[in-house]
Specification:
Strand content: under 5%
Largest sheet: none
Shape: globular
Number of helices: 15
Distance between the termini: 60 Å
Amino acid sequence: MLKRKPYNILKVKLASNPVRWIKTYEEDFARFGNYDHSSRPFGHLFSDIYDCYCLVAMTHLGYETKTPIENIVNKGTDLALFRFLTAWWKGNPDLTKYADKNQKTLSRFCWMKEFSEGLFLGVLSNRWSEVSKLCDWVEARFPAECINDNDELEVSEVYKLIAAGLRNTPMRGKDKIGLSIQQCRLLQPKLLYDCWLAILDRNQERFSSTLIAAVTHFKKNFGKGPNAVAWIAPHHSVLANIAVHFGLILPEMTPEMSAVIVTRESIGLSRSKPAKMASKSMRKEMKPKPRKTPKTSPRTSRKSAGK
């Protein structure tokens, strides 16, 4: 546990008074669920998930909130499940193009922002069976998306693989996703992907080194902004909570690094109990298959050997 408030460690500077922000978020939280999603603009549902996400960030940073944090993470998880697992959009052609994953073309389809926030809230809620249902919804064919200016398209590809590892049913086409991340030139997606592979392997040493490398990169390039969520590392926090759930231990980090990782303990909840370790065959199924190299003919091989 950190001895100082994370907002002091990170020297957080927000665009406006944090008390005012918390009041706005909590006023919004009080009305969640008191309206019919199908009869209001879709932005209300998505902003509600985001408000829960922001309240968790504020709590983690050390700001006081009146709403119990357990209520926040549970309500945010409920909203994410509603967003992805119900057909609330039916009857509205515009919303259908935005939210129906069964369309032939996904040119206007969006998923990454709310899914990443929902998964963040879900792993903190400790409701892993429902997290698996949320991950069952994701498909490899979804378009890659950026959440904000800090995130590359390939980060959404990492989330597809995380979903593939947490879901109840196999994901078709996931092998190509891992290869696309390996071949990209951007460092953040590769670091997150390496960390995820270490978690799948239950490799404590590699998990520790990859998480530290990923957080170091985050601290060097991101980690500042006008609102609370800009000061935390959400993708790294998702991976950290999954790792703990799978029985791994978070590595020792500097206070500045630990202050950007949101865990159940950092927001005042009890530590998640480790899950039973998956079998080797299951972990093998979760991991992407390596690219097959073309076989060379005996003649080519002898010719190459003679050079």
